[in-house]
Amino acid sequence: MSRFRRSCSCVVSTASLALSASAFFGVFFAAPSAHAEGFEAHLASGLGLGFQNRNEYGTGSFSRFHPEFVTYGYLGGFLGPVWLRPGLRVAYASEQPEMPQGLRVEERDLSFGGELGFVYDWYVVPSLALGGGVISRQVKLVTKGVISSSENDISKKETLPFLHLQAGVGIPLWKGFMVVEPLYRYSWVERDARITYTYGLEMTFQIL
Amino acid sequence: MKMQMTRRFVSLASLFLGVFFAGCNDKSPSAPKDAAGHYRAQVLVFDSASTQSDEATTAFQVKEVAIESLQDLESLSGAYFEILEGGQLFIQDIAGSQVQSDKFTGGGKPRLRYTMKDGVIVPRDYNTLLLLSAYYQFETVWRSLKGVTGFTPEAFLASMGKFRIMFEPKIRIETDDSTLDATIKLNAAFVPGKQQFILFQRSNLEKVPLAANLQVIAHEFGHALFEKTFFENKFSRCEGEEEVILNRTGVKRFAQEFAITGINEGFADVISWGVTGSTDILRSSIDLGDSADERNFASEKFTFSSLGSNDDEVCSGRFYCIGSLFARSVRSAALGRGVNTKVAAQRQAVTTEVVTAVSKVQASLRTFDTGLLPAPSVDVAGCSTPSNIDLTYDGKITGAFLAAFLKNVPPANRASYCTAFKKTFGAEGFPTAVRGDCP
C-alpha cells in the first residue's frame, strides 16, 4: 500500500487508465507497466485554484485567477517509492487586466493540457511534472461610448500550444483520499511570452 | 524494463521539448511596408470630422491607417520619436501634466504581439493596440505641426531633438525627505528639459485611453512647444534663491511661477484645439467631478476674479484654471474677429499666431520694469511653485504675460485679444496698468 494513495481493490486496466489519464503519455507508458510486477494504479481528480502571472503594465504584472479541473493517474510499484503521475488538465481564465472603459481587448483562455509527472512516496509527496497542451483563446475588441470599431480584425480565436514544468508538494490527508498540493508551474506559451508562472493549490480526491 | 522505459521517456521528452522550443517564441510575423514605404496598422484614431459641427463633440474609431514616420516597428522608433516600454522613472515633482524628473533607468523595446492580414498589422492584445495607437497619435500631431504652429517637423527636430516616450514606467518619487514607489494613473505628461513624454499606467476610470487620445497627446506636445517658444528652448529649474532674485526675467523664475505653469497648460490646450478642433480636451477620457467642465474652454464657468476664493466649486484645477482662461480668451478673440474655428485652416492660423507671439513673450518680459513685472514672490524665489493662487501676485504675473503677448500679435488682432482678456481675466488678472497696447 502506498503511503499517499490507498490501494484500490478495483482492477484498473492499464489501457483504460491510459485513456482516462492521458492520451499522450498514458499510451506511452501503458505497454511496459502492464508487465511490471507489483503494479498499482489509482485515479484521482479535483480542482486547482491558482493565479497565472502575465507581464502587463510596462514591466509590471497581472495575476489572473486560473481555476482548473485536474485528473491524475498514479502508476507505481515498479520504481520503488517513485510513482508516475500522468495527468489531464482543463482550465479557464477570463479575468481581465485593468483597461479603460471605452477600449478593451479581452482575452478568455480555455486550455487543455496533458502531463507526465513523478511523485515521491513519502510523508509529504514532492512532485515534478512536464506537460503540454493548447490554449483556445477568444480575443474580443470591446469599444464603448465615443469609440466605434467599424473595421477591425482584432477580435478572433487563437490556438496557442504550450509547455509547462510544474513542481509541487502534496500533503496527503485521510490516508491519501485527499491530497492538497501547493504548486508552482512555469509555462512557455507559443506566441505569448507574457504568460510566465502560475502558483496555486490543488485538491484532488482518489476516485479509483 | 525500468532502464528501457527511462530511455524511452528521455528520448520522447527530448524530442517533444526540441520541437516545441524550436518554434516557441513571442515573435510576430515580419510586417511589410506598403507601396509608399509605410507600415499599415489597425489603431485607435480620432475622427476629425466629429468636431466640425460642434467643438465639444468627439468621436474615435478603431481603423486601419498608415503610420508614415515609423522606421522600425519592433522598437517603435521613427525619425522624430521612439517608445520605450517599462523602465523606472525617478520623479521629483509633478505639476499637472508637467513632471520634473532627472533620471530614467531600464525601459526597453515595446512588447508587440500582432498578426498580419493583407499587409496590415493587427494587434493581438491591448498592450499592442495601445502602443501602436500612441505612436500614431504622436505622429498625427507631428504631421499637424506645420499647420498648427508654423514650424516644419525638420526644424522642430533640429532644435528640440528626438523625443522619447515612456510607456507605463514604474514610478519612484524622490523628495529631499523621502523616496516612494508609486503607481500614477489618469495622467500623461511631459518632462520639460528632457524631451520626454510619459504615458502613465492605464486605468479603468479612463474612457478613451489617455495614451491613445489625440486630444491628450496634442496637449502634451503643447508643453514641448511651450518649452521651445516661451522658454526659448532653454528650460531649466532653479536650484538656489540667488538665481531667481538676481535674474527677475530669467527662465528659472518663470519655471516656478504658478501663473506661468497655468498658462503653459492653457497654451497646450490651444495646441490640442488646433490639432483636433475640440475645446473639450479631457471629457472623452476622464469625466470625473467637474474637471472636464472646467477644462472645456468653450464654457464660461468662471473668471480669473472668481478664482480668488480658493473655492473648489469655482474651479478645482488650481493652475489649470488659469490655463483654461487663457485658452478661452484665444478662442473668444478669434470668434470675435469672425474666425470660423470649426474650419481647420482658419483655426490653425489662430494657433500659429499664438505660437509666434508666445515665442517672443519672454523677450518682451525682459524689457518690463517692476511696475509691469513684479519681483518674484518668496515662494518662487525659494525655488518652489505655490500650491494655490494669490490673486494679487498671480494677477500681476498673468497681466505681464498677457501684455507681452499682446505686443507680439498682429496689431490688427490686438483689439480682439484685449476684449477677450478683459472679459476673462478682468482687472485682477489683466490689470489696467498692463493694458497699454489695447486700443
Order of strands in the sheet with the most strands of chain A? 1-2-3-4-5-7-8-9
The CATH topology name of chain A reads: Porin
**CATH class membership of chain A:** Mainly Beta
Query: What string gives the helices and strands of chain B in order?
Result: HEEEEEEEEEHHEEEEEHHHHHHHHHHH
Main beta sheet of chain B: 4 strands, mixed
Describe the strand arrangement of the main beta sheet of chain B, using strand numbers.
Answer: 5-10-14-13
> Number of helical segments of chain A?
2
Query: What's the average pLDDT of chain B?
Result: 89
What is the terminal-to-terminal distance of chain B?
105 Å
Number of helices of chain B: 14
The rounded Rg of chain A comes to: 20 Å
Order of helices and strands of chain A: HHEEEEEEEEE
Terminus-to-terminus distance of chain A = 14 Å
Which descriptor suits the 3D outline of chain B?
globular
Round the Cα radius of gyration of chain B to an integer and report it: 25 Å
What would CATH call the architecture of chain A?
Answer: Beta Barrel
Please mark out the parts of chain A with pLDDT under 50 across 5 or more consecutive residues, or reply none.
Answer: 8-36
Question: How many strands appear in the DSSP assignment of chain A?
Answer: 9
Give the biggest sheet of chain A: 8 strands, antiparallel, barrel
Strand content of chain A: over 45%
